[in-house]
Amino acid sequence: MILDGEKAIKQGRFHDAKKIFLKLIENNEENFLIHWYLGHVFFKLYNYTKAAKHIINSIKLNKEDSLNLNFLGQIYLQKNQHQEAIKLFNRALILNENDQEALKNLALANLQIGKLELAKKYYDILWKKFPKNLGYYYALNNLDEKLSIENVKLKEVKNLNHNKIYLNLILAKKSKLIKNYDDEIKYLLEAHGIFNELKKSQSLQQYNYYTNHLPTLLKELQKINHSSNNIFKPIFILGLPRSGTTLMETIINSGTNVIQSMGEADCFDKVFFSNQLMNYDGSNPKKNFEFTKEKLSLLEKAILKQYYEQGLKENTQIFTDKSITNILYVDLIKKIFPSAKFIYCKRNIIANVIGMLRAFLPDVYWTHSLNQIKAMIDINFKNLKKVKKEFNHDLLEIDLENLSGDPIQYSKKIFNFLELNWSEKILSANNNLIIKTASNVQVRQKIYKHDNEHVKYFEKIFKKIGYNFS
User: What is the rounded distance in angstroms from the CA atom of residue 31 to the CA atom of residue 11?
Assistant: First the structure.
């Protein structure tokens, strides 16, 4: 039966795999491998508590090795228990000082909690130990832009696809520094093109899901009359990637009110997948499935449970969520969280597109194609128009250029809208948040004015290659 479970995992049938392995445990087969597989299955289903439990059982039944320690640490990162995760990564490093996975995890964990010098230290170790992996140099360069491209032995690193990606990103950075924007765009598009080719299947599935399949399902949900009576007053920060959403969350969580930051929790996406409401290919795995008021109540419980899985504290009323896809779920959000408020972050659209290309977001597949970027911008604005029409009194739009140009006036406007207490300390750098986005380094500094002088050059370049974003 273990082989049947392995096959189900390989085919992505995680619910089937879960049933198989749980049945084996019911039959008193206390095999470390069964717990190991169950840990991975629950992780794929976003049930991080059970994933951790089974990996701990697997370690107890077998031994503590770097593979299990690293995976257990990654589970704790998802639960936003970073100190526990760091302890596990350090234990893996004690077993093997050259453990590449442990070093990567330590760099990432420290980066997310704002310990930038420690993150830089681990990326520096990785670059020195594994000089043929240009990704480590790129990560190091993001933390220390004084590093020079001349430090890289290009002949040694340019053969593998992932190295070609990072080589082009580094060359784009170099072009940006000397304001050679034509070359910058050329290198950026080359990097994104290679990545897009490598992830073609996943990219197409994700794009079709967000542009076609999900809206169809949510249209059915919209028909159901449901309004929760829960006590939550969440703040959903909406906007395109690189539009200022991380800065917004940082500002809101820097005030005197007790607010929990959930970052890009993606709870709605995760619940839709883990509860088999929809597959990425758009198929509904439950035959004759029909939404009812009762099922919507169960969906509400599942979404709240997912927030708790990812570290939402008991008795918390106000929390922030800046997941990119929340703009697609606004109708459902208001059914589950009637007291929710929305802040939509926007900026000059050309600057926004450039920001996405420069940031290189590996998990947001549509940001690697200009065609898909353009389509997702249209979907964002279409949904924003809908929110303004239906929930206008619960919506505030904030322009990043205005906020960075006059942070006092606009931060007061934000806090007044949210009915929170404003104080001058919100304008200081905030290093206490867990930040898992590409804006990590920037938002830990004081608010700086955004200069869009370069935008006119990029607008011409985009038009030259057939894209009009204005």
Answer: 23
